[in-house]
Every structure is written in structure tokens, then in C-alpha cells.
Amino acid sequence: LAERAQAAGAELYLDGGHNPHAARAVADALAALTRRDGRPPVLIAGLLANKDAAGFFSAFAELGPRIFTVPFESETATQPEALAGAAREAGLAATACESVDEALDRALEAAGERARVVICGSLYLAGEVLARSPETWPS
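^ thats the sequence. predicted structure below, dont judge the formating
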């Protein structure tokens, strides 16, 4: 994933925060970065069903990033369409995706080469993303 983002000229970040307080910290950091260089923020998000999705996405309302929601391996993961609905209720443009790969493709297409993509919302999702990286688990 990092290689694909880098090849497109985008920045890619991974954050395991999964509650409104963590979302506010990420939103504040993204806002500061956006003020500095104008790169548009895009979120790829997945949350467990027992998390406050409305509060999580509300933290990003002022920043207004495009949201792409994704599934991940957990019996209690919120389905992407339901999660996209929560983001829309917070006033954000959101699209449900079938995978992180699809979400990254759409994020890069939506925001272009200057995109700043943040994968966030769940430690489970973060773990899945890290497990795919050869730098994390070299053979």
C-alpha cells in the first residue's frame, strides 16, 4: 500500500485510534498539515460496531475529508455501508468500499497526487495493513 501511495505522489499514514478523542487528535494534526501545505486529507476508515462512529466522524466535520469505509477481519466490525452512513450523518462525503485496496485506489483518484491518506479507526484494521507490509514481516 505504501508503495502504491508513494508511486502516486501521495502521503500515507496509519493510525489505530478508534474513539472520538483519538479522532480529534488526528483531525487536529491533519488540519495543521493541511494549513502548511494544502494537501487534501482523505480517510480510509473501519471501526468495530461497539465504537462511537458518529463521534469519531464528527471530529473530522470541520476538516471535511473524503471518507472511504472498509471491512476488516472481525466478527464485530461495522459493515462499510453502515459506517459510510455514519460519516454522511456527520456531514462528510463517504463511500463504502469492499477492501483497503479499493479504498486506496478511490482515495488517490479523488484527491490526486497530492493526497494525504490516513488509514484509521481500528487497531484490527491497522494490524491487517501492517501485516501486508514486507517491512513489517520480512521473510
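The mean pLDDT is 91.
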